[in-house]
Amino acid sequence: MLLTLLAVLAISVSASLYPSSPCTATPYACGLEYMPALSSSMEQATTDIIFTGWKFDLDTPLLGADKNLTFLGAVEKAIARGVRVYVLMWKNTISGPADNWKIMAFHAEAVAESLKRAGAHVLMDKGHPHRLLERVQPTLRWCQHIKAVVLDQRRVFVTGIDIAKERVDSCDHKWPDARRVKDAGSETGFHEFWQDSAVLAEGQVAYDVAHVSVRRWEASCRLAPDTLSDCSNMPVLRHATPMEGGKQRCGVRLSGTPFLLDVPSTVHEIEDEYVSAILQANRTVFIENLYLSSELLGEEGKLEKFLPISNSKNGVLRAIWSRLKRAVDNGQVDGSFSVVIVLPAATEEAFTQSITAESVWSKKRGLIPTLQHYLNVKGYGKDTWKSLLRVLCLAKTYRMENNAWNFMTIYIHAKVLIVDSKVAVVGSANLNDRSLLGTGDSELNLRIDGDFASSLQRRLLGYHAPSGYDDDRLAASLGETADENWRRLETAWPSMFSASQRAGLPVFSFKDVAKVTFGMFVPRAPATDALPLLDGMFIPWQEDLWGNATWERAVDKLPWIGPAIRSFVTKIDARNRKAAAWQIYV
């Protein structure tokens, strides 16, 4: 594996289809920073706007729910000024039947028809076949996942933020907040808290992103046009506008196959970029992502292929371990090199959540136990690992009526890598196989070299850890803040957060992953308990946060019919299963 990582390190940058070039880049740390900036940029556009996205809600309030401007309204205003608007959308085989599912409510055809009535040009991207199997399989498992907006082919937003209602959230995640979109189905009254990031770049890179979208549009119309696709008024590439004297360098990095991208063969540039940047890190690696699903450490046992254990293949986790091991071997255990990984307390589903837990805490092959064991063998103390590595999540406490309070986690949807405050990789790609191997979803990230990386890190941590941190010992200082926040929660609500009072039970049950994710209250604390004032939002992603995934991971071994089995068994099992002692009630 080490030889593979070193090979990636040698070829990653030079092999990119779009070389880096001078640019300027501006960071955005949440939806309510990004969407108003997008609205302003749309107003300034003079020739064309090219949207490429996974999901579009026409009624998304770009300035916040307390303002009147929607995404559709902004599109109509641009068209009225003579700006040509192009929207590349993803059409899934189950888009219609799944429109009532919370996660899959795309209403793609209705959105496309409304945009066309407004005067926009639309591509319904359903993939195009190159091989016999692709000609018969539905566009169900893989999708167009790129989120980018090119303006006048001179500026471009690249992000993980969809133009969708639930993405409208502030960087400090207030509750209640009139700017957020209300959701009658949520106990909080709003959509889930949503942490995400974006970048606005200017220069050659904007033309390069336009090139990706336009070539995709042309290929789709040539090989597999949809009835709703506008193939007679496609976007047209103009000349690139290089940035003279740009303070940063930006380069497009892709992941995908010819099924969903106009590329000659499978590309996995984003995985290569992650691995090479991590291996070259000198001081810090900072990751904020929805998932941590990567090839586990050590060797797979003979029976593991039949057991409910992650079978991810991308090399990000092994790159992190390789760099941590090098630090230990060099005696650099004082925190002068460290890794910080920020993950959501809960993903959407138990089986994806359990993969993250496995990557972090698996006794034999997880990142933290492997580091702990190696340090112990080397003769270091049991807590030395905390200077080298911390895995954290975000949460807040909120005051309620009658002096009661509640605890809610923050859903992290970001896709950010920052190395040494000098290199940033930002875009649409999750840390899992379907985003990184190139054989799944189409993805687009930017690699940005320069002071953008430190600007983005300061902006994120300014909200996550507002009292400050030590950049020379990043993991240790942020971990100390998170540990102190947990101690405050234990003191204020011991039956929920104190391990001694939970008698070996986890804080959350895997049955409650969706509840923790989608804006539901954790059980309310008694009115007699004082609201614990947390220092920012960090809490540790610790081992007892979740219980054992049991059968959910076994079912995940069935990639096509697994979700259906999982849903059916959950419904049957729920009728007879007793609630866990610390189950979250809705």
State which percent range the strand residues make up.
15-25%
- Uncertain spans: 8-14, 132-138, 550-586
Largest sheet: 17 strands, mixed
Q: Which shape, going by the Cα principal axes?
A: globular
Number of helical segments with 4 or more residues: 19
What structural class do you assign from the helix and strand content?
Answer: alpha+beta
End-to-end distance, in Å? 45 Å
What can you tell me about this protein's structure?
The structure is a single chain. The strands form two sheets. The protein has a 17-stranded mixed beta sheet that branches. Strands 7-15 form a two-stranded parallel ribbon. 32% of the residues lie in helices and 17% in strands. The chain has helices spanning 2-11, 31-44, 71-80, 108-117, 132-136, 204-223, 269-279, 316-329, 350-361, 367-377, 385-388, 433-436, 452-464, 474-492, 494-497, 499-502, 513-517, 551-555, 562-574, and strands at 21-28, 48-52, 84-90, 121-125, 148-151, 155-159, 194-195, 198-203, 248-256, 267-268, 284-289, 338-342, 389-399, 405-409, 411-412, 415-419, 423-427, 443-449, 538-540. Helix 1 crosses helix 7 (269-279), helix 7 runs parallel beside helix 8 (316-329) and helix 8 packs parallel to helix 10. It contains 19 helices and 19 strands. It has 586 residues and is of the alpha+beta class.
Short description:
The protein is of the alpha+beta class. Helix content is 32%, strand content 17%.
Descriptors:
disordered C terminus; 17-stranded mixed β-sheet; 17% strand; 19 strands; 586 residues; alpha+beta
Detail the topology: elements first, then pairings:
Elements: H1 2-11, E1 21-28, H2 31-44, E2 48-52, H3 71-80, E3 84-90, H4 108-117, E4 121-125, H5 132-136, E5 148-151, E6 155-159, E7 194-195, E8 198-203, H6 204-223, E9 248-256, E10 267-268, H7 269-279, E11 284-289, H8 316-329, E12 338-342, H9 350-361, H10 367-377, H11 385-388, E13 389-399, E14 405-409, E15 411-412, E16 415-419, E17 423-427, H12 433-436, E18 443-449, H13 452-464, H14 474-492, H15 494-497, H16 499-502, H17 513-517, E19 538-540, H18 551-555, H19 562-574
Parallel strand pairs: 2-3, 3-4, 7-15, 11-12, 12-13
Antiparallel strand pairs: 1-8, 1-9, 2-5, 5-6, 6-8, 9-10, 9-18, 11-16, 13-14, 13-19, 16-17, 17-18
